[in-house]
Structures are given as C-alpha cells and as structure tokens.
Prior knowledge:
By secondary structure, the chain is α/β, with parallel strands linked by helices. It is built from five helices and four strands.
Amino acid sequence: MKMFCISDNINTTTGMRLAGVEGIVVHEKEEVKNALEKAVEDKENAIILLTEKLAEDFPEIVSDIRLNNQETLLVEIPDRHGTGRRSDFITSYINEAIGVKI
C-alpha cells in the first residue's frame, strides 16, 4: 500500500516526492476530478493526500469521493501557505466530538 499526493503547487509535490510519495500538481476543477478518480482507481493507493486549498476550492468533488469510496482514505494536508484551520481547531474538535471543554 502506498500514498499519493494531489496538490495545487509544485513545492508540496516536490517535498512529498523527497519523502517517497508520488504525486501530481493540478489547478482546474476537471484536473482535480480526474486526478482523484485515477488515484482512487489505483488499488495500491491506500491514502490520498490532498492540499487543503484544493479541498476548499472543490468541496463537491471531495465529498463525492469520500461518500462513494470505502477503500481509500482521503486526507487534507496544509501546504506552504499554512493551514486553513483556526488556531484552536484541535480543541474545538474535541469539544464537538465528546462534549468536554478543555
């Protein structure tokens, strides 16, 4: 099993390649859709890494892949621009998940 990276910039893709993770750089909606479908079809890919910006720009494609695919894990990762999440993301996630304020 392996990982595959789909990114909107060459820096993230290059960094992942240095770590042994193959990937592709895409920008347009159709490119993102085709790259995700192709990555999911390859049964060797256990984890697909997708930059947060692409996931934010094309949420309908990401949702469709997550709903219709049970074998591959789709993970959003930050890129060189940093994370798009709030600084208290982990704390608020725990609050929502178990109802305990930290």
